[in-house]
Amino acid sequence: MPTMADVARSAGVSVATVSHVLNDTRPVLPHTRQAVLDAVDRLGYTPNTLARSLVTSRTRSIGLAVSAISNPYFTEILQGVEAGALEEGYGLLIADPHDDPRHERKVVQLLHERRVDGMIVAPSADPRDLIAYLGRHAVPTVFLDRLIGDRLDGATADAPPFDQVCAEGAEPMARLVTHLAGLGHRRIGLVAGLPGLSTTDERIAGYRDGLAAAGLSHDERLIAPGNSESAGAERATAALLSLAAPPTALVTANNAMTIGALRALRDRGLRVPDDIALCCFDDFAWADLFSPRLTAIAQPSREIGAQAVRVLLDRLAAPDRPARTVRLPCAFVHRTSCGCPEPSVRTGPPEPAQQPRHPRQPDQPEQPEQPTKGSVS
Question: Hey, how many other C-beta atoms are within 10 angstroms of the C-beta on 77?
């Protein structure tokens, strides 16, 4: 295996010059740099990453801690992080905190002990121990997808602020609600995410904003916690359908909960959108394959991951720069599960006066009977 000394002899330079070129530790004349790179290519020299880290105090590696890696949304974020890191010559170490604050603290410490240059973390609903650890050890960190907000209050007094990258949450959710209201729905249910997450809080706020914008009153009974996972959403949807005055439309707050909601609707024999309309926050690859096709909010998941890498590298280059929060816009993907016809068939916007099959008005008193199979009204 060729050594750095072999590269130096082949390029006609000193070993120190080869080190400066490979580690970018001192300016080198362009023609000298090229001679070194040509020798590296010619000899097939592979730098010793461990030795390089001892010289530069950098491992050129990034730690990524995100839960539910199997979720298509986080899988795409991971792909964005990996592509962004690779483009800049960084490797990636990945851990799954399982949305457990204690486990989160452990895996982040393990990544830190591997001497990663910085971390990208999707924090849990209670990240106080995580924040305290990162602040105490001054670990360059970017939080993605979930904002930590005032939860810094639980950290050490000298904990620094952190950079953050995530998608917009409230306005896109409000758009789903106002769209359903424009189709005549007056009782719109929300299957909400895991309590304590900023994404859950923002989407609930957007749901309420959408109701207010449509002139609809807010009924707390129409919000059910699905805990950001399929089984929880199945239970939440069943609870909403068991109300004496159940919703005529549902909004699910992430893609995993959409699957759970669809299972609950199937078990009741309810058809989307004939018996109940459905919109979801999070688009995913097979949303277009359902029948009907799912109307959804699409988050820029890969761009969130790539942007998190860029923000982290900016932090590494300028440790004292002010912390920043980057918010990325989402897209409204209009399909047919909301009750609208196929876009190729529709000749204009949906009629505002269009009504769901048997809507109840908000002021109608609730009845004790349960919804019958085939109808949510």
Answer: 28
